[in-house]
Amino acid sequence: MKTLRRVVRWSFAALVPGELVLVLCLAGGVRIPAGVRPALESAVLTLVAAAITLFCLDRRRHRRDGLDRRAAFLAAIADTVPAPVRTLAAHELVLSASLLRWVFRRGSHGVRDGDLPVRYAAGQTAVMFGFLFVCVVETVALALLIPWPVVHAVTLVLDIWGCYFVLALHASCVVRPHVIGADGSLRLRYGALVDIRIPADRIASVRPDRKFPESRLAAVDENGVADLAVGGQTTVTVELTEPVRYVRVLGRPAEARAIRFYADDAAPAVAALRAAGTNRTADAADAAGSAVADRAGNR
Hints:
Blueprint: H1 2-27, H2 36-64, H3 69-80, H4 83-103, E1 116-118, H5 125-145, H6 149-175, E2 178-180, E3 186-190, E4 194-198, E5 203-211, E6 225-228, E7 234-247, E8 253-261, H7 266-298
Parallel strand pairs: 6-8
Antiparallel strand pairs: 1-2, 2-3, 3-4, 5-7, 7-8
Helix pairs in contact: 1-2, 1-6, 2-3, 4-6, 5-6
């Protein structure tokens, strides 16, 4: 079973690009030899049938192990589809949904009553629209300059996708802000790429702290500090009572003892987190006092 799964995965990795090249050649008007197209289509159909068979066998195995239908379905997908592919597919779905939410002004995602959204997209708006302008200019220029049909079709598809990605990434940053929960928890995000949840009881201290890190997005340094920089800077530092685990871009796990993030307006975010910490301390003190009073009364 493992060997068959490995063969199917590597065959897909080889054939899917070939299928894409075939589609682009047909779109560009390139004449394809008579036997190439049926052979490629047959290979793809065979691999799809093998992948479906593997999925059904995995799902049946998980059902025999006692999982319900939904859990068995998800476990079978995890067995059949590699983690990077699942992560990329999820990113693309979230990007598309965020772009639609931004276009139709549906409001922020994941912000409930009593929560405080912490915006961060303004720190990169100029840069993102600069990238978008460059992508549009490149798309138009290459569309006019490249004379070869196949190369023209490939570059056009890639350039259009690049324009979409830049716009959708910015939209996801706008509609998916950081969130300070009504219970004092903190949810840090960067568009569709990063989502870190920090329970309220793990926040030790918060302070405004402008830094200019050079690390990659959500990467953890040797001191256990992760940076969610926007526009090359962070403005708030959160120290934790114990490490928090999260998933980086493309599904890589990470663990941080402190997190620095960017907020367009850091002061309200710091004040809200500190107020939540003060309330937790007061509640704990009240609970301890009540417990002492109860023990004294029992005596």
